[in-house]
Model the fold of this input.
Amino acid sequence: MDLSVSLKSKVALVTGSTSGIGLAIARTLASNGADVAVNGFASPDEAADIVASIEEDTGRRARHFPHDLTAMAEAGALVADVTSAFGRVDILVNNAGIQHVAAIDKFPDEQWHKIIAVNLTAAFATTRAVWPQMKDRAWGRIVNTASTLAFEAETRKSAYVASKHGILGLTREVALEGAAIGITCNAICPGLVLTPLLKKQVEAKAEALNISFEDAARKLVEADAPTRRFVDPTEIAAGVLFLCSEVAKSITGIALPIDGGIMVTGTRLV
Done:
């Protein structure tokens, strides 16, 4: 049995990978042998810098694809364009995610539809698009970024919570369809990671409490995380690497918390 985590000759598509967790995942997969397709919003110069940095640091091919995942057709087209550029897609990481915080009676229609589109519908569309080639090769790895809020709820986050519960259901269903044909599908459930998404929420908390960003961040992590620290994006990426490896071929349909012990306590968070 091959117990290595080498991804040599594999091509990975990571959505939402121009910053934060997604960028850490793209870098980690490339560092372990995969060519990577980076997707997400960035200026041409920013995208070029990201791609150049990955290629220089890892020696693997990288390319940026700016497809807007709020449109279902764009999500499917993303897979087609990556396949055209690299010849195949072996690994799909559905990491793109957005957030909006508002009370249920004040939650805007536009934000509801946008969050469901990016966090859930895009994952379905990319999975559907990549499925035929993975099936033909009898090998594929799909990893979806969920959240501890795939299991719990938190006020003022109706669309986000709904989308993350949905991504966990999608993960399990896809795992069943792929089980006999060499395709695994799993979810990772990050805890407190100081990504640009979380930073905005910490900034809002700091403003509401009239305290510094640093104090607000410390209050959040001390209240919610048993480890009393933020999870580093590279720790999330390491979990994804394992699930994409050959040694994890019998692991499918799971939701892996990488959360500093939050799920142990039942604490609710992002």
Q: What stands out?
A: The mean pLDDT is 95. The CA atoms of residues 131 and 226 lie 39 Å apart. The beta strands are 11-14, 35-39, 62-65, 91-94, 140-145, 183-190, 255-258.
